[in-house]
Amino acid sequence: MQMIQNLRGEKTIIMVSHRPSHIRLADRVLHLEKGILIAEGAPEQSLSRSEGKFL
Questions:
Q1: What is the value of pTM for the model shown?
Q2: Among 29, 33, 40, 53, which residue's Cβ finds the most Cβ atoms within 10 Å?
Q3: Does 5 score more than 50 pLDDT?
Q4: Where are the domains of the chain?
Q5: H or E segment to which residue 47 belongs
């Protein structure tokens, strides 16, 4: 994770994670189900919902 933090702001980083600590590092969160984009937003939107999804 240190490498990702060092590259923030310099590169576009695509990361897949279920860990809230990693999601908090993101500028935008995309929620996919069965390969289909169902939601997009700020990390706070996703983390504020009890089931971890945002719509």
A1: 0.63
A2: 29
A3: yes
A4: 1-49
A5: helix 43-48
